[in-house]
Amino acid sequence: MILCLLLIILRRFMDKRFNTLKIGILGGGQLGRMLLQKAVDFSLKIRILDPDPEAPCQHLAEEFIVGDFSDYNTVYKFGKECDLLTIEIEHVNVEALEKLEKEGVLVYPQPNVIRIVQDKGEQKLFFKKHGIPTADFSITKDKNEISQIPEMLPAMQKLRKGGYDGKGVFRISSTADIENSFDAPSVIEKLIPFEKEISVIVARKINGETLCFPPVEMDFNTEANLVEFLYSPAELDKKTETKAYEIASRLANTLSIVGILAVEMFLTPEKELLVNEIAPRPHNSGHHTIEANMTSQYEQLLRAILDLPLGKTDVTCNAVMINLLGEKNYEGRAVYQSFEEAMKMEGVYIHLYGKKNTRPYRKMGHVTVTGKNKEDAKRKALTIKNILKVTAE
Amino acid sequence: MILCLLLIILRRFMDKRFNTLKIGILGGGQLGRMLLQKAVDFSLKIRILDPDPEAPCQHLAEEFIVGDFSDYNTVYKFGKECDLLTIEIEHVNVEALEKLEKEGVLVYPQPNVIRIVQDKGEQKLFFKKHGIPTADFSITKDKNEISQIPEMLPAMQKLRKGGYDGKGVFRISSTADIENSFDAPSVIEKLIPFEKEISVIVARKINGETLCFPPVEMDFNTEANLVEFLYSPAELDKKTETKAYEIASRLANTLSIVGILAVEMFLTPEKELLVNEIAPRPHNSGHHTIEANMTSQYEQLLRAILDLPLGKTDVTCNAVMINLLGEKNYEGRAVYQSFEEAMKMEGVYIHLYGKKNTRPYRKMGHVTVTGKNKEDAKRKALTIKNILKVTAE
After folding, report:
1. Rounded Cα gap, residues A80 and A90, in angstroms
2. Is B15 in contact with A339 (Cβ distance < 8 A)?
3. Contact B340 A303 (CB under 8 A)
4. Tens place of pLDDT for every residue, chain A, 393 residues?
5. Contact with chain B for residue A259, Cβ under 8 A
6. N or C: which end of chain B has fewer CB within 10 A?
7. What is the complex's ipTM, to 2 decimals?
8. Nearest CA distance, B274 vs chain A (angstrom)
């Protein structure tokens, strides 16, 4: 009852004043950058915390504070100056966020959600506990324990903590590979044959309202273990699509997350959907929403955490998203090859992340290609992929 | 020949290095703000000069310099630190820009274009000289001279210099109104009956290539003398549309402008198009291009001045744009009424300009409403207009 009243007061307060709230974002990478770009339209006051003084968010926020978001004191001090905190990376100090939450700072997504997602072991245990379909797995402390579960092979080894952007993942095809695996706490996930990998981003507000973005399909670059092409919308039968929405919404509700949650799923040949990983923040699989959906994932995150109405997520056109990765043999000051040629093409939207230096497979930007139909967009995306390269001086 | 060679070298240089150029923008208002928002995608280094330390561009540029863009020394000093200069307001010091241009700084639009546009008398004389259709006019020094041309009445008086956002304009219906008119150098323009007012934004590159945005239709609030509703695309017969493109392109070519030029035109009952005013910068009549055209006017300006290929300008959906003006009787810290209600509506894109204080008719933001068709968009825009209000605390 009192909670209800408080919520009503809070909502009234936020209706008129959401744009006077001091908002803090932990992380100043490309996801934060695109979030800031959108936040301009709502005239929000945003502070960024990132250890890199040249991070992509530099110069774009009201305040850019150089500091380690995994350090308790740094996060606590940063958060005490904010009314509302969110993240663009999950490797942040959760203890500080928990303390801030107790002291009345709004932390969305909530610290307990971030805690689960930070640890791939906890993630998998959470899926299991709540009946969320996922591939079989074991949790191991070290290399030695992997040898004791040969029945799990072939498998993907995923470090429980700290993996990011394709790092911290190792394929163990047979026992012979174990000696080269990570000797650290891991999830050993049975390799499952799958038809495609899809992703659904779901937004959830404090009142429990959820809304999903239409599913997208992802094509991986196995060498870099990063998404190479992403197709929107995914080609799925109606039943599978409904199941995907159901799983994503159930996850969001079970976590009680306020914000957005990206849910990556495998579609097996038997048309089963198995959750691979979740991320409680803007996600690589949602970049295309800037040009190809009625509301972007960045705007949706702002709407969700500011308790504003969620925006319609309908697809407005076919799109293919390509990550612009640093070329393999180049390191140093980035140079964009054939940028002009790429810009000549119709429906090509280039987003550079403002990173001065490139290195192999570093995410330097992305390109969303829209088209009259899927084939048209795919054909153009392939051309872009072949000509637009990030090399070094 | 040498010029050609230089152009080729410059283009090669800019292909790889356009994002290392130091770009300066004179003016830090909402037009600059939306330009910066887009410039993020191209990772451009941008400096802003504006006299208001709380201007809309504050916190969004690599450097924000507080200074008077109409002052010779301030502009010269600012420009000397730049490789390329552009404007988001035309009331800037042209002498400094001319000197900078001579000293090798790229100034787009060129100072001679800005000089013509700054003075509404020069604008009209330019139209006349080059056979650009425009309403009859006289140029007057003071009130007294207006009395000597009763045959021009009813007329609009426009101050030759300094008018902006609906200011500096006065309607002289009969000789009785002359005593209340501005006693300053003016253009006295014969009032012409017109069916509608339209606008075409044209981009032009250094190689002479031009590309127009589809025409839009404007509905004025006569009290504030500001656009109240803007419809995209305009409903015009093919012949008139072609004529509008022809006039806009001819103007751009005659001026040899590099950048974008907004061309406002009256459509008379005889289907004649008469140029009202031009602006060599992003324009209020192009805000909707962010959501409703393949390329926005802001991106097109960047493409034009960076000598990148111009983007397709096709309309992607029907749109209505509404300026969000400060309510008549409110002054002080801005409060947005029914913001949440407006955000509940589908296809409603709100852009706030980050101005702390409101005053009557101040441009505080704009809203672009997209719809299945024109009627749908119009209906929603009317609702927005009736509920979304900017008042003060």
Report:
1. 19
2. yes
3. no
4. 666 666 555 555 554 467 789 999 999 999 999 999 999 999 999 999 999 999 999 999 999 999 999 999 999 999 999 999 999 999 999 999 999 999 999 999 999 999 999 999 999 999 999 999 999 999 999 999 999 999 999 999 999 997 776 788 999 999 999 999 999 999 999 999 999 999 999 999 999 999 999 999 998 777 776 778 999 999 999 999 999 999 999 999 999 999 999 999 999 999 999 999 999 999 999 999 999 999 999 999 999 999 999 999 999 999 999 999 999 999 999 999 999 999 999 999 999 999 999 999 999 999 999 998 889 999 999 999 999 999 998
5. no
6. N
7. 0.92
8. 33
Instruction: Name the one residue in this structure whose structure tokens are 């020094």.
Output: B141
Neighbours of B108 (CB within 10 A): 24
Say if the Cβ atoms of B350 and A316 lie within 8 Å.
no
Asked whether the beta carbons of B293 and B371 are under 8 A apart, the reply is: no
Q: How many residues does chain B have?
A: 393
User: CA of B208 to nearest chain A CA: how many angstroms apart?
Assistant: 16
Q: Is A117 helix (H, G, I), strand (E, B) or coil?
A: helix
CA angle at residue B297 from B296 to B298, to 5 degrees?
90
Distances (CA, A) of B23 to A103, B44, B62, B83: 44, 8, 10, 6
**Residue showing tokens 């790092």:** A167
Torsions phi, psi for A86 (to 5 deg): -140, 180
Hey, is the C-beta of B52 within 8 angstroms of any chain A C-beta?
A: no
Contact A340 B309 (CB under 8 A): yes
Chain B residue with the nearest C-alpha to that of A38: B37
The shortest CB-CB distance from B15 to any of A37, A41, A340 is to: A340
Contact B303 A339 (CB under 8 A): no
Q: Which of B325, B343, B338 is nearest to B387 (CA)?
A: B338
